Amino acid sequence: MGSFGERGVFLGVANEGWSLVGVDVNDGRRLFAPLRLGSAEGASDFKCFVNKAPDVLCIRQAADSVAPSTAWVINTETGELRFTGPTELRVAGAQDRPRVEQIGDYAVATVEGKGMYGVGPRGELTWFVPGNGILPAQFATWARDAIPSSLAVQNSGRVADVVFSVADGHVVEPKIEGDVQLGQAVVYPGGFGFEYTTTSDMSERVAFFDDSGHKLSEPEPGGTLETRSLDLPTVGSRLNDRIFAIDGRKLLTLPPSIPSPNARLIGSRLYIATDPDHERWQQFDLQTGEAGKACDGDSLGFSYIASDGQVAVVLGKDTPAQGIDLATCETVWSLPGPTQNEIKEVWKVHTTLLERSGDELFSLVAPT
Q1: What letter would DSSP give residue 137?
Q2: 1-129 and 135-256: same fold?
Q3: Radius of gyration of the chain from its Cα atoms, rounded to whole angstroms
Q4: Are the beta carbons of 351 and 364 closer than 8 angstroms?
Q5: Where are the chain's structural domains?
Q6: By the 8 A CB rule, do 9 and 48 touch?
């Protein structure tokens, strides 16, 4: 369900309820014995969240919508149960209750129409950032290779979005000169971008900032931020789509696309899907700007698991994982699929691939 570097934390469920176990994925050493949590009886949902190293927060939501949830906080270095008790937090169907979401290595609680809260070591609400309490679509995307940012975005309830740290709720103000109206914000590795207009001409502009809000660059001419390109900023206009590094270096210029392009960075290649079902991914070498082979299928979308830059590991139709040669888009290997009596799954934990087969875990290495 989560990890702190090479410390993987796994949630199991059996007839007697849920349990948590920690494993060093580098050598398979168990970090702590299975820790039994709550019973499945009378629960509508159960979920665990990484919440500031080394803690994991688990929440059991009662079937009775007015009853409190139960929280457990576990130190994953020792397996110590630091806290267990009632909490107002929810993990599903929250309505006007605080609903927990995972942002980077922190749990945050959202309340629609009110704002976002931090979550403390006893499952309590801590800092608060007012706003609409809705995480934009950029935080509901598929697995990515980039290290998650500790910044989040919500709309302020007016025109402008607000960018804030999920570590402490500190609002990061973009340092930009002049009389401007801020608009939509998008978070990237190493900083964030903001759309804005000036009162003098009302033209659409974009600027990029580091995690502290210091301005890094401002592409000319302006445009709008494409919210489905989260590894590298993409600025769209009627004339073209331009892909930038956050420091302002222009990497690619492409024809404008409708709908907004989905993009994924793997090594030095950028893969862009401009079709609504993200079924055809055109690759570009960012070192040369040259287009490569287009890969068909959803392997680089929701099915993506991990990559070493040469081969992508993806979920297959009848297999928990298969390898796709990124240069040729051909399948180069596949794992045996599940059976009637054995469930199989493959996960990336830090830099290790793990396969779950029934009730066993295995680390995976490159085929020979």
Answers
A1: G
A2: yes
A3: 22
A4: no
A5: 1-129, 135-256
A6: yes
Q: Whole-angstrom Cα distance, residue 276 to residue 258?
A: 9
Task: Give the burial class of 258: count Cβ atoms within 10 A of its Cβ; 0-12 exposed, 13-18 middle, 19 or more buried.
Answer: exposed
Provide the b/e sequence for 85-118 (b: ≥16 CB within 10 Å): eebebbbeebeebbbbbbbbbbbbbbbeeebbbb
Q: How many C-alpha atoms does 294 have within 13 Å on its Cβ side?
A: 11
The fold for domain 1-129 equals: Lipocalin (2.40.128)
Alpha carbon 351 to its chain's center: 16
What is 135-256's CATH topology? Lipocalin (2.40.128)
At 61, phi and psi to the nearest 5?
-95, 130
* Cα 300 from chain centroid (whole Å): 15
pLDDT in tens, 120-179: 999 999 999 999 999 998 887 678 898 889 999 999 988 899 999 999 999 999 999 888
pLDDT of 16-48, one tens digit each?
Answer: 789 999 999 999 999 999 999 988 788 899 999
